[in-house]
Each structure stands twice: as C-alpha cells, then as structure tokens.
Design goal:
By secondary structure, the chain is of the alpha/beta class. 47% of the residues lie in helices and 16% in strands. It has helices spanning 2-5, 7-19, 22-28, 35-42, 46-58, 74-79, 82-108, 121-126, 132-136, 140-155, 194-203, 239-250, 273-286, 293-303; strands at 33-34, 63-66, 69-71, 188-192, 209-213, 227-231, 258-266, 291-292, 306-314, 319-325. Residues 14-77 form the O-methyltransferase dimerisation domain.
Length: 326
C-alpha cells in the first residue's frame, strides 16, 4: 500500500538522481563510493544526498554496501543509459501532467471512453487543442527525448523480423525510421512529417531509401505499392481517425497490395502489465487504445479490409504483424 500511494515521490526522487548523474557515476566506478565521494562528484550537500541515496537504495535501484557506502546494481546500470533516461524525462515532463489530470478528466467525461481522437487528458493538462505529434513540432527538446526513448523501448523487445536473414522495410508515420529494409528489390519510401523527415535525412538514410513528407490524414500518393507498413500508428487513434487513415491508403491499393500493421494484439484475458500500461498511456495521451484481436478484425472488416494473417512475435507484449488486403 505504501509503495502505491507514494509512487509520485519515487519518480520524483529517481528524476533527481538522474539529474545528479548518480547512476552514471556509480556505474562508471570500479567499486563502492562513499557519500563524501558522491557529494564531491555531484556537488550536492552530503546531508541531502545521503537521504536520496538511502531511498533509492531501499528501492533496489542501487546497493548500499556499508555505512555511507554505495555501489551500482543492474537497475542503476539500466538507468545510466541515455535512452532510458530520456524515457524517464518524457514520462515525467510530458506525460506526467496528463497522468496527474486523469482522475479529473475521467470525472469530467462521466467515465466514458473519449469519442474523438486527441481529446484526451494530455490536451487538458497542457491546455492545448493540438494532438501530441503536432505539439511536439514546436518542442525540440521534448521531441528529442521521445525519439531517444523509442530507441530504448524497441531495443528491449524482439523485432518482427529476423535480421540475420532479412533487412528493414519502409515505415509510414510519426516515429524515427527504426525499421527500414534498404536492400530488398523495389522502391523503399519512408514517409513522415516534415520535422521527422528533416531529422532522418540529416542523420543519413540507408542507400536506396527515399524520404517523402506525408501526412497520413491526407490521400496516399504512392499508388499500387506491394506493402504499406504502419508501425505503432493506429494505436494512437480512435476508430474514426483509423478509418480515415486506412481509406487514404485503400484508394491507391492494388489487388495484391498488403497493409502490414505492426501493433499490439491483446488477448481477451490475463493481459501482461506492459500491454495494459501502454493501453492506458494511449488513453491519457491520445484518448485512444490498444486493441484485441476481435477489435482489430471488426475494425478492419468494417472499413472493407480482409485480415489475411496475424503473426505475434512477442507473446508477452503481444506485438504482432497484421496483414490485410482489399
């Protein structure tokens, strides 16, 4: 009970420890460091620092090896990774206010599921009418944190493809190009919003990959592609916007074209904590959801698509490829 009701304190102190670079300092050390050593390295008051160290040690983030002696743990090693720290900042700074507003937001809707995409706790918390992705466009620091976090998030789970036998395929949507197969036959076109395309090009795309600015709320301009690959896009949207996105693709598909959705496909019961956490994050950030297999089939059937196959490549997190055609 005490752990649950003090979760705000835990995340706040963890953020403070990251700001002080405590996890990095301990991870870089060959052995335990004293409180005085850590105070010197961080510039923090030993009286304050000792209390912070005792708390994060009691939570298992670091190890206390003796009186005022501390060393790293596997958790602190993870928390010293820049991409994971970016995830902490993203969840604390961007999503934290939305999580804080969830009770009031749900009460204001009389505990009903949102009926419009992007009318969520995020908009209330940040006093904006902008969807999260549009809001990011004028927030370079927050955008950079999110993109670094996505590297860590996906690297911690298995991929849909066996990279020893295949290469990366193209992706449409507002994420960094983490999944581009550059040496298969045909044109590989990476589509995204202007800021994302600009960044991807500046970082250097793989040979043979074309970059194209595209907003998936508008008609798709690439006609007759063999595959249209959308990774973690539809879970950001309620059915109304999903239907719009799909119809924009369907109008340019050929009979042998496939849309490949890389999304969670939830079981009907006993859902893993990561999936339930992601589902409610979608609710807070977008007013959207993760979907069950029945919900996916109903949604795609309703818009005129046939589900050809569902391949689940992480059975714990239920990350899956859904192949659909006209």
């Amino acid at each position: 009970m005490q752990r649950v009701i003090n979760l705000h304190l835990v995340i706040g102190i963890t953020r403070t420890a990251v700001d002080l670079k405590l996890f990095n300092i301990l991870d870089d050390s060959d052995g335990p460091l004293s409180l005085q050593d850590l105070a010197f390295k961080t510039g923090a008051d030993p009286a304050l620092l000792g209390r912070i160290l005792r708390m994060i040690s009691s939570l298992g983030m670091i190890k206390e090896t003796g009186e005022d002696q501390f060393t790293s743990s596997q958790t602190s090693k993870n928390l010293s990774i820049a991409e994971i720290q970016a995830g902490l900042y993203h969840n604390y700074e961007v999503l934290g206010p939305a999580y804080q507003d969830l009770p009031e937001f749900h009460a204001s809707t009389k505990y009903r599921i949102p009926t419009e995409t992007h009318k969520a706790a995020f908009q209330k918390a940040w006093n904006t009418d902008l969807p999260l992705w549009s809001w990011f466009q004028s927030r370079p620091k927050e955008t950079a944190q999110f993109n670094r976090f996505m590297i860590a998030q996906r690297s911690s789970t298995p991929n849909a493809f066996n990279f020893s036998r295949s290469r990366r395929n193209a992706k449409t949507g507002p994420r960094r190009n983490h999944s581009l197969f550059h040496d298969i036959k045909g044109r590989i076109i990476f589509q995204d919003l202007p800021g994302e395309i600009e960044h991807a090009v500046s970082q250097g795309l793989p040979d043979g990959v074309e970059a194209m600015v595209y907003d998936f709320y508008t008609p798709q301009v690439i006609k007759g592609a063999k595959f249209y690959y959308l990774r973690a896009i539809l879970h950001d949207h309620l059915d109304d916007k999903v239907i719009l996105i799909l119809k924009n693709i369907m109008q340019v598909m050929e009979k042998d074209s496939l849309i490949l959705f890389d999304e969670m496909v939830l079981p009907n019961y006993n859902v893993d904590w990561f999936a339930t956490q992601t589902d409610l994050t979608m609710l807070a950030a977008f007013g959207s959801m993760e979907r069950t297999e029945a919900q996916w089939k109903s949604l795609l059937d309703g818009v005129g698509l046939k589900v050809r196959r569902i391949v689940t490549y992480t059975h714990t997190f239920r990350l899956s490829i859904i192949a659909a055609s006209l």
